[in-house]
Structure formats: structure tokens, C-alpha cells
Amino acid sequence: MSEKASLPQRVITYTLLICLASAMLLPFLWLLRSSLCDEATVIKEIESVADFIPPVLHWENFPNVLKAIPLLMYLKNTVFIAICVIIGSVLSSSLCAYAFTFCHVPYRRHLFYCVLATVMLPGVVTMIPGFILFRELGWIDSFRPLIVPAFFGSAFAIFLFRQFFLGLPVSLIEAARIDGATPLQIYRLIVLPMSRPVIVTVSLFSFVGCWNDFMGPLIFLNSKENWTLQLGLNSFRGEIVDQTNLLMACSVIILIPVIVAFFCLQRYFIRGANMSGVKG
Amino acid sequence: MKTNHKSAIGIRQSSPRHLSPMAREDRLTFWCFLSPWIIGFVLFGAGPIIASIFLSFTDYSLFNRPNWVGLDNYRELFRDPLIWKSLGNTLFYVIFVVPLSTAGSCLLAVLLNQKVHGIPVWRTIFYLPTIVSGVAMGVLWRWIFNPEVGLINTLLSPLFKLFAIDNPQWLLDPVLAKPAYIFMSLWAIGGGMIIFLAALQGIPKDLYEAAEIDGAGPVRQFFNITLPMLSPVILFSFTMGTIGSFQIFAQAYVMSGRGPDNATLFYVMYLFDQAFRYFRMGYGAAMAWVLFAIVLMVTVIKFKVAKRWVYYEGEV
Description:
Number of helices of chain B: 14
Largest sheet of chain A: none
Largest interface: A-B, 113 and 112 residues
Distance between the termini of chain A: 19 Å
CATH architecture of the largest domain in chain A: Orthogonal Bundle
Oligomer: heterodimer
Shape of chain A: globular
CATH topology of the largest domain in chain A: MetI-like fold
CATH architecture of the largest domain in chain B: Orthogonal Bundle
Number of helices of chain A: 14
CATH superfamily of the largest domain in chain B: MetI-like
Radius of gyration of chain A: 24 Å
Helix content of chain B: over 70%
Strand content of chain B: under 5%
Helix content of chain A: over 70%
Strand content of chain A: under 5%
CATH class of the largest domain in chain B: Mainly Alpha
Number of domains of chain B: 2
Structural class of chain A: mainly alpha
Number of strands of chain B: 0
Radius of gyration of chain B: 25 Å
Number of strands of chain A: 0
CATH topology of the largest domain in chain B: MetI-like fold
Order of helices and strands of chain B: HHHHHHHHHHHHHH
Number of domains of chain A: 2
């Protein structure tokens, strides 16, 4: 790519980016606007551009939501589950992906397709028998059914890791083996350090997956003190049918921590991606 | 050293009986490293899967002992008009969403990978929608598609007035409900974009430098370097997109339920209703197996075709 793109090219790029970004942001502005309206304004038709900004900003909607439901408790539960799942899925999935990429074993490609096939299985197939299994183990209404499976590798993360590993220089790994490095050493000292981008990507996806998971907590968590943010939002949705403004305020509160977290991860992501050893 | 080197080359030729030390080490490593997945698969995958095959031949309803009913569930499935309706709805959705969102996320990543100012800001903006959860997304978009005071109709109302047409009813209209879902799904292409971007940044810069010296312009560089290097990710995006879209559930459940004239009755939603509303676990299990068969077929075909166009740097 040239050091400096030509002027028309840059104009096109920025125009496209601005258009797309506006399309992405508008629903959020709409969400924010709705969360700052009172009950009457939120369902009033908008006739002019000025109407987009509510005449009075009702910031008290946010404390009102926090008073109505114990969001902080739900947040604590969600974050705890997410951290455990990230650790579990990065460790187990990268090991499995290493096996599939660098170990020359007959039929490994077929076995890999088997792993992939598990993603294609609609979650509903394993849901009912899975529920029975966890009930037998006495794990219902604990976080364990949501966390423990992550430590056994997720096909989605294995796929991601493998896709990335396939792009790594095989010669580097072969050279390390010839020098007498054990597989665990190669994994820990060569493959993992080069895999920062994909580790961050997998963590990101695990985190967002946990944050968004609705079905899992719905099935496995009964008592309110174990609820996640999703269950909280859903029950809130049922309770306040007419107060769209409070519902939107609740969604905004749920979104803010993730946006902040993503901004922080962003830097890691770029640094990791730039430092990847593919070039060397 | 020298013998080791020989065996490294000989890995693929050696017969199973006379395994070289390295091939033996390979096998051991393979099964050790894979063991978490294997144990997990037996416990949380295969066990439940076998149980659900069994369930699909029974009339289990959570409260009774399962009675064997043979193929009755599958026979009923082919006669159930709502199965066909929901399958049609789901296919319509998948066929539009998967190619559109893959192309969209690839385009976005390529745009961002140019020397654009403020990349973190752009990236966050585009990623933002994927952070919105199933429930919150359903809540928000139901509100956006509101025919009277929703965002979409508010923005388009000058247009409607100009052509003197009534406000479209979106989720309440049997024809427009599914396109509304497709539109909504395209809002969340940032997730795919992140993967494409990671892959783009992994492409060695010297490839582009070499191409430039050889006189290739940006367009040729895109088609001859970027696209082939991205092809594994494109395949990935297609595969996961298909699998995910076939299982659309949470947003639909929150947004419109079955919709007008069952227009947004998606397959998994119908399955969920059968299993958890009417407690027909056996019928639900049979439905799940049919969906699994369809998704598997589509994916196998995709991988067969992919051999022709996907390029792996590391593969021999």
C-alpha cells in the first residue's frame, strides 16, 4: 500500500466511513434520546429536527432504573462469569487448535470437521439433556453450568485459533522442534506470543458472548441474586410495558461498561496485531 | 541432529508401524492437547446429543416417562405446515443476511486498514452494534421499527409524504417483516469486521512492497494479495454466519414473536415453542435434528467449493 493515498481516494474513503458510521450511530442516539425523555415525550411524533432533542433531559431516569432493579448485582455476576469463561476458552481452545494445526496425525482434518460440526448443532438439541445432566450434578442455580464448559474448548474459538495458526510460518515451528523444543515449549514460547491478536479476538468474543447470553442464564439461574444483566433487562421489559424511556435507560446503563471496556481493549488489540510475529 | 531432520521430512511418508520418534511425539501431543475438547465433547456434547436422538423417537414431555413412538415425530414434521413456513422464513433470512454481512464486514475492514486517521474511534463505532445484546437489541429495534414514532419512519416520512404513501408497518406487515430483520442484522457487521481487520494486519507488508515494485496498482493488489490472503477468513465468516443465522432466536423472540401471518416465525423459535411452551420435547428434538442435517449439508457443500478458492499460507 502506498505511503500516502491520493486525494480523491481519501475523500471517497472518508465519505464512505462517515456515511456508514452515521448509520451505525443513529440507533444509539435514538436509544439515548429515548432514555432521556419522559413518558409522554417518548411516544410523541417528531415533526422537526429540533424535536429530536427532548425539551427537558430527564437524567433521573437512570437512578430510577437503578432503584427499580439491582443492576450492580447483575453486573457483578455477569463480569465474574465472563472472566472465568475468557480464561477457560483461551487456554483450552488454543491447545486444541495447536494440535489441529501443527501435529501431523492421520485423519486430523476429519476430526477437525467433527469439532466444527458441534457448532452447527443447534444449541436446543443439547439443551434439554444438558439441563438434566447439570441437575443431576446439582449445579442448577449456580454459575458452574455457564463456566465449566468453557474450560473444555469451544469450537468457535478453536476455529479462530486454527485459522490464525495456519497463517504462522511452519518453518519456525519445525526449526524449534529440530532444536529439541517440546510441544509445550513451542506452544508457550513461540506460538502463544505470536498469537496476541487472536487471543485478544477470542477474549473479546467470549466476553461479548457471555454478556449477551440470554438462553443459558435463563435456563440455569433461578434465584434473583444469581441473575445476569440479560435476565435483569428481560424481566424489566416484562414489568414496565408502557415506560419505553426507562427500558431504554436500562439498556444504556448495560451498554456503558462494555463500551468503556472495548475502548481499553482496542489499544491492546492494535498493539498485539502489530507485534504479531508473522512478519519475522 | 541429522537423523532428527530426516525424520521431520519423513513424517508423512512413514508407515504406521514404523513411526519415527517425531511422528510418535506428534500423536502423543495431539491427543494430550486435544483432551480438554474430547472430555468436554463426551460430557456436554455427545452424551446430550445421543440422549436427544433417543428423545426424538419418544413423546417425552418433561413430566411423563418417555414412551417410544418410532418415527411418528418425523412423520408429523413433514405434514406440519408451520414447519415449512418457518423453514422458508429462515432460509429467506439466511440467503440475504450471510452474503451481505460478509461482504459488508470485509469492505469495512479494508476501508479501515487504509491509513485512516482515528482508527480506534471508527473501529469502536462499527463494533458498537455487536455489543448490543440479544434482549437489548430486540428492545431497541422493536422501538426503531415502531410504525408511528419509530426512528426509521420518522427519518423517511418526508419521502412518504412526497409520494403520498402510508407509513410502512415494518414488523406488523407480513411482507416487510423479514426485510426489517435483514436490515437489523446488517447493523451488526462489526463483529466480522474485527476478524477481517486482524487478518488484514497479519498480511506481510513486503507482499505489497513487492507488488508495488512490480507495478501493481491498489486494485490489483486487492485482488491478487488482499483477497487471497483473506480467503480463509471469508470462508470463516460465511460458515459461522450461516450457522448463526439459521438459529436466529433471541432478537426475534423479543421483537415480533411469530409476527403477522407467521411471517417472522423462525425455525428455532417454532422449535422453542414446541419444546418449552407445549413441552413436546420429543417433537422438538426431532425438529432440531432436521435443522442440524440441513445446516451440515450446506456447510459440507461450502467446504467442498472452498477448496478451489481458499488459500492457506501454512499448508503444504
